[in-house]
Amino acid sequence: MATVDKAAIAWSIAIVAAGTAFAGYGSQLQESGGPTFMAPSPMVPPAMEEPKKVDPFAEEAPKVMGPKTVEVSMPVGTSTPGCEVTNECYLPASVSISVGDTVVWNNVDTAAHTVTSGNPSDGPDGVFDSSLVMAGKSFEFTFNEAGSYEYFCMVHPWMIGTVQVS
C-alpha cells in the first residue's frame, strides 16, 4: 500500500467542505432571487446629517399647550371715577382665553376692590366673587366653561371688565 499523506487528505476534506458550503449558499441565492450587493455607506455622525427640508407654504400644525395664566391689574387711581372713560379700570379690560385657563387680578391700587362676575346694572351673577382684594393682593379664577363673563368692582361700580372663554 502506498503511503498516505495525511496533510493531503485533510486539505482535500477542507476543499470538499468549502465546496459543499458554497453549493448550499448558491442554492439559497437562487431561491431568493440572487445576491444583493450594497455599496458600503460611510458613517455619518448625527450632527453631520442633512437638515430636514421645510416647506414654507405648508400649514403649521397647531401647537398643543397646557393651561395658561393671564394677569389683569387694578391700577392706581381706579378708586376715583375717570378710568371708565378710557376703559382702563382693569388692565386689560377684556381678555380672551381658552377653557381651563386662569385669570389673576392683581390689585396695585391703594384702595380695596372686588372682582365680581356680573355687571353693575344687574348685580352679581354668582359665577365668581373675590370679596375684598386689599392693596397688594390678588384674586384668581380658573374658567372651566366657554362663554363671555362680565365682571365689575362692587365698591367702585364704574370698574368693569370682560373675560371671553373659548
Structure commentary:
This protein has one helix at residues 6-32; strands at 69-74, 94-97, 102-107, 116-119, 123-129, 138-142, 147-152, 160-165. It has two domains: 1-32; 69-165, Sandwich (Immunoglobulin-like), CATH 2.60.40. The chain is α/β, with parallel strands linked by helices and 166 residues long. 16% of the residues lie in helices and 27% in strands. A hairpin with a 3-residue loop joins strand 4 and strand 5. The protein is built from one helix and eight strands; from the N terminus they run H-E-E-E-E-E-E-E-E.
Topology:
Layout lengths: L5 H27 L36 E6 L19 E4 L4 E6 L8 E4 L3 E7 L8 E5 L4 E6 L7 E6 L1
Parallel strand pairs: 1-3, 2-8
Antiparallel strand pairs: 3-6, 4-5, 4-7, 7-8
Compose a concise summary of this entry:
It contains 1 helix and 8 strands; from the N terminus they run αββββββββ.
* Secondary structure tally: strands: 8
The total count of helices amounts to 1
- Poorly predicted regions: none
Distance between the termini: 105 Å
Helix content: 10-25%
- Find the structural class using helix and strand composition: alpha/beta
Q: What is the highest CATH level, the class of the largest domain?
A: Mainly Beta
Which key features would you list for this structure?
166 residues, alpha/beta, Immunoglobulin-like, 2 domains, five-stranded mixed sheet, three-stranded mixed sheet, 1 helix, 8 strands, 27% strand, elongated
